[in-house]
Write a structure and sequence with these properties.
Four Helix Bundle (Hemerythrin (Met), subunit A); 4 helices; about 80% helix; about 0% strand
């Protein structure tokens, strides 16, 4: 907590990231299910960038693979990448959640 009693920059940033990432995961799942490669490529790009900014490099790397597949209009294998993204996100969510608890 900051001296003024506010939550602090890092915990607020992490909470915003987690909320946005959860939304992006839902959008990714629906676009992969629909076979909308252009859409899942854009969403994967956004999730890749925000994850990398918070140091979640493994998640960013998997998102990059899905982003590249989306740009290439390659739908095959997207569901496997989505599963890997969800799995890695669960780990990131736990680590970042612990970071929030440690700073409060």
């Amino acid at each position: 907590m900051d001296a003024d009693g506010s939550q602090g920059f890092l915990p607020a940033l992490i909470k915003k990231y987690l909320a946005n990432a959860n939304s992006d995961l839902e959008l990714l799942a629906s676009s992969v299910q629909r076979g909308d490669a252009a859409r899942f490529g854009k969403i994967a790009h956004r999730l890749k960038s925000s994850s990398a900014n918070l140091g979640a490099m493994n998640l960013a790397s998997i998102c990059k693979e899905l982003e590249v597949a989306g740009r290439a209009e390659q739908i095959e294998g997207a569901d496997t990448l989505l599963t890997a993204i969800k799995s890695e996100y669960e780990r990131v969510d736990q680590v970042l959640g612990q970071e929030i608890r440690n700073t409060v």
